[in-house]
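Today's session is about reading a structure prediction critically. Students often jump straight to the picture, but the first step is always the sequence itself: look for stretches that repeat, for charged clusters, for runs of hydrophobic residues. Only then move on to the predicted structure, which in these notes is written as discrete structure tokens rather than atom positions. Here is the chain we will use throughout the hour.
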Amino acid sequence: MSIPKEILAVKRPTNTVVYVTSAGNYGVKKRIGCRYVNGKNRPVNGPTVGHIIDGKYVPIEEKKKDTSSMAPALLDWADAQLCEDLFSDMIPELEKVYSHSDTMKLYAMAVLRVCNPDVKDCELQERYEDSFLSVLHPDIPLSRNTVSKFLSGIGKQLPLIYRFMQNRAEKVGIDHHLLIDGTLKSDDSTVNSLSDFSYKTRLKNRNDISVLYAFDLERQEPVCSLCYPGNMLDVTSYSDFIEKCGISDGIIVADKGFPVSAIRKQLKDREGLRYLSPLRRNDLMIKDHDMLSFEGILTNERENIQYRKCSLPDGRFLYSFRDPVRAMKEESDYLRNRKRNNDYDADNYRKKSASFGTIVFVSDTDLTPSQAWRCYASRWEIELVMRFYKHALDFGDRREHTDYSVYASEFVDFLSEMLTYRMINRLKEKGLLATQTYSKMLKTLKRAKKVRIGEEWKLVRINPADEESLRKMGLLPGEEQPKRKRGRPRKQAL
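Below is the predicted structure for this chain, in token form.
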């Protein structure tokens, strides 16, 4: 097909040639040399460098693209950067078990769940493309089908999850206090076998998955976690949890629903494993050793906690505590219930009143009363965070359809929980949680974005208060700005 003269007459770069494209348009190719063929020099055309449009030459680099097909140039920066600073050391830990490709998917999913608490698996690709995580770790495929297939594959290789948990448990020191507890997560899937009615949720007609976790009180982060059917007894799941995760060192701090007899074999086989377990209030050891006759007050606690410590002939120790604030509440609840039921009995009241606000522990290790109390008090702090995950972050609602996906998704949740605790610890360390909640700090991080100008990413202007918070977190250079005093400055004397 011949090229019209008016097209050939259009001004274009030298050493170029016009050709007709398959779509019937006119393209411009660059001449890159010649080739000697059959005694003659034949020109060699190179890549297309432009097009002739409406009688004008338009270089190919200046062709305008639709914004919908362009990569985002404005990205959520601060939350992804803080996660990278606090959690990037987990990449080599994951790579001890998984391939690099699987590691980066696990890492990205965990980070995105923390940065976007309400994110669903089908939205991960979009959130990834809008996050600076796509710049820090580019080309991670997270489409809906990719994630679904990936989670199924991770769940099918459950022994690899066990190996990862075992690697983490090996780092627990023998003097560390390891809190082991469980929580229930809703799971209304009708396909996976892990979902079953638990005793606690039978009345509300919901299915649950039981998740057991171990928390290192010294490191202030979860060590390992596994999920079980919601109807499995604690006695069975606790012993299996210790075996599967390879927990061999530390002091297990359990709740009243966890009898020490459930792990008697594990304690015998693991010399470095110790326990601190609460007794029921009707346990005979409390009366036999007069554990409600308190001998002192803990001086390093904000509350006025009374305590008593007693050593037993078999080498174990008893620790008892009384919280007067909790005692007042229990007494008030007891009297209100008796009034409502009209069954007050003076003798019964005298028997119960002495135990209001008290808790007694038995342990096979010698602790100071302060150490024993902190183990107990920290357990409730951790429970609050777990409730936050379970309700506020919607991590508790599992919608996957197979056991494989449930195992894998809970594994990703565990990684997200680790990252969340590290973020909370950083915010506590910098004093940022003294006046703001964790949720509000997440919103502050989300407001800090970066825009690409040329080849450089620059921070979009934010308000001074948010900028100061980012500086405290170590995300921006420079020192913290001194607080400005209120009121007018005084005039200086002449």
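Discussion point for the tutorial: The chain is about 40% helix and 20% strand.
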